[in-house]
Amino acid sequence: MTFSVDKVRADFPVLSREVNGLPLAYLDSAASAQKPSQVIDAEAEFYRHGYAAVHRGIHTLSAQATEKMENVRKRASLFINARSAEELVFVRGTTEGINLVANSWGNSNVRAGDNIIISQMEHHANIVPWQMLCARVGAELRVIPLNPDGTLQLEMLPNLFDEKTRLLAITHVSNVLGTENPLAEMITLAHQHGAKVLVDGAQAVMHHPVDVQALDCDFLRVFRA
């Protein structure tokens, strides 16, 4: 796929800046992405002319804001091919989304003696919530190790699963290494052992299509700020 770098840069006002006498090249989008004019303009228009609480009133502005939010939910569900827009929950970030799963589903389904599997390449947002859950209930946290080339030691994965495995929490694409994990085979293996699967998809959705029905994951966390 080819594209015009100049055309893409023109969408981002911040990239008109110079730093140290050179055009700005922003390479920290894995932490927080710059906003294109289309997003900035849409948010400004909402705050100037349409701001109101959603699902909290029957007056015109509230109804219009609610309709806009639900239309976004529907469009987002189509973007990831969810079965229904009702499967999508808006959160403030991937960290909050993972904590929501850990403190709702996790508290109800993980018990003493159970185990959760993560990988060595996870963002802290997909490590700490499971560490805290395991410490709270007396479960075990198991970790898939890395190879020297930054890929997972997948040959170790079958040995980590057993009848007490409740969850595989895995990143789709590493925010540090750029490694893309073979989710299909990992999810199939997890489900064969009766475990649920949470995918951290924050670094994947902007690079290629993500189809949650094809992946067959149980939770997908996506957020770009």
TrEMBL record:
Q: What Enzyme Commission number(s) apply to this enzyme?
A: 2.8.1.7
The family database entries (InterPro entries) matched by this protein are listed as: Aminotrans_V_dom, PyrdxlP-dep_Trfase, PyrdxlP-dep_Trfase_major, PyrdxlP-dep_Trfase_small
The domain of life for this entry's organism is Bacteria
Q: Aminotransferase class V domain: from which residue to which, for each copy?
A: 26-220
GO molecular function: any one? Answer: cysteine desulfurase activity
Keywords per UniProt: Lyase, Pyridoxal phosphate, Transferase
Q: Does this UniProt record's set of keywords contain Lyase?
A: yes
The answer to whether UniProt assigns keyword Signal to this entry is no
Tell me which PANTHER family the record gives. Answer: CYSTEINE DESULFURASE (PTHR43586:SF25)
Q: What is this protein called?
A: Cysteine desulfurase (Selenocysteine lyase)
Recorded source organism is Escherichia coli
**Name of the gene encoding the protein in the UniProt record:** sufS_1
